[in-house]
Q: What sequence folds into this?
C-alpha cells in the first residue's frame, strides 16, 4: 500500500524558515517523480514544486522560486521541502504527492498533508 | 497567464448524472486529470489521461476531453460523491496547473 506521511509543519513568523519532510513507503520511491502541492485555508490546490527521480531536475511555481528548495534522499525514501523567507500567503496545508509513472507532474497518490501557518 | 476554468458549483439529485467541466486552451493537446476531495481529506485521483479510471474508482466516474474542454461525468451520482472536484493539466510549457475546483452537491 502506498503511504506518504508528511511532517514538519507548524507556526512560524513571517521571514522564518521550516523544513517539511515526507516519508514514503509501499513503493519503489526512486522510480518516481515527486511533487509538493499546497492548499490555502478554504482555497483550491496549487502545485508548488517537483523533483525528478534522481534529483537532477527540479521545478517551482513562480511564487516560491528562490525561497523554497525541493530535495530527496532515495536511500531514506524521503522527500523534503526547505521553505525560507516565509510569507503570510504561504499559509497552507502542504501535501507530498507521488507522480504517475507515465507523467512528470500528474499525481496518483497524496499524503494527508501538514499545516504551515505563517503569522506574527 | 494560463488558466483552467471550472464552474464553482454543480448540484444534482441522487441518481442523476453530474457533469463537471474544465476549459482551457491547451486541453486539446494535453491530458486532463480529475481529483475528488472530500471535506478534511486529501485529494483522490478519479480520472487520469482524459478518461482512464484508477483501480478502486467506481464505474460511474468517467471522463472525456474534446477540443478545449474536459468533462468529468458521474452517472447516477450518490450522496457519497459530494465534495470538491479539481481538474488538472499543464500549459504549453508543461507547467502544472489545477482548475479552481467545483463543489458537487448531491441532495
A:
Amino acid at each position: 500500500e502506498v503511504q506518504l506521511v508528511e511532517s514538519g509543519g507548524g507556526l512560524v513568523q513571517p521571514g522564518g524558515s521550516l523544513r517539511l519532510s515526507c516519508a514514503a513507503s509501499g513503493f519503489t520511491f526512486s522510480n518516481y517523480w515527486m511533487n509538493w502541492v499546497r492548499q490555502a485555508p478554504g482555497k483550491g490546490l496549487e502545485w508548488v514544486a517537483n523533483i525528478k527521480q534522481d534529483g537532477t531536475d527540479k521545478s517551482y511555481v513562480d511564487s516560491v522560486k528562490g525561497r523554497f528548495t525541493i530535495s530527496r534522499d532515495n536511500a531514506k525514501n524521503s522527500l523534503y521541502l526547505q521553505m525560507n523567507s516565509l510569507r503570510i500567503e504561504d499559509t497552507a496545508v502542504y501535501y507530498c504527492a507521488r507522480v504517475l509513472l507515465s507523467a512528470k507532474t500528474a499525481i496518483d497518490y497524496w499524503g494527508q498533508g501538514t499545516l504551515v501557518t505563517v503569522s506574527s | 497567464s494560463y488558466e483552467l476554468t471550472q464552474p464553482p458549483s454543480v448540484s444534482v439529485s441522487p441518481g442523476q448524472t453530474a457533469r463537471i467541466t474544465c476549459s482551457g486552451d491547451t486541453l486539446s493537446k494535453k491530458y486532463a486529470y480529475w481529483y475528488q476531495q472530500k471535506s478534511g481529506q486529501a485529494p483522490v485521483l478519479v480520472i487520469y489521461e482524459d478518461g482512464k479510471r484508477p483501480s478502486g474508482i467506481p464505474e460511474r466516474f468517467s471522463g472525456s476531453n474534446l477540443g478545449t474542454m474536459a468533462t468529468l461525468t458521474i452517472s447516477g451520482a450518490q450522496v457519497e460523491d459530494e465534495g470538491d472536484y479539481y481538474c488538472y493539466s499543464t500549459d504549453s510549457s508543461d507547467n502544472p496547473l489545477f482548475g479552481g475546483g467545483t463543489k458537487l452537491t448531491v441532495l
Observations:
- The radius of gyration of chain A is 13 Å.
- Chain A has a mean pLDDT of 96.
- Chain A is about 0% helix and 50% strand.
- The first strand of chain A starts at residue 3 and ends at 7.
